Amino acid sequence: xxxxxxxxxxxxxxxxxxxxxxxxxxxxxxxxxxxxxxxxxxxxxxxxxxxxxxxxxxxxxxxxxxxxxxxxxxxxxxxxxxxxxxxxxxxx
Length: 92
Hints:
It is a single chain. By secondary structure, the protein is mostly helical. It contains four helices and two strands; from the N terminus they run E-E-H-H-H-H. The chain has one domain (2-90). Helix 1 packs across helix 3.
């Protein structure tokens, strides 16, 4: 899947640049920029574009590059939902 970047988030790329989110490197750059520089609307758009499992995989790869506050917030959120999913499957 391809998406056109927002210059506000990707000031270091040429205006109108398109990222191929099926490429893990480009996906990771996109997720990292949105999580560290994005507004709520940017994060909502992120989750309309990629599914939670893809986000989780990307987050696992980039989390060491995130500011500690951002990392901690998303680790708590992902950890809770990941643990809930495990509990649900175990009870079946």
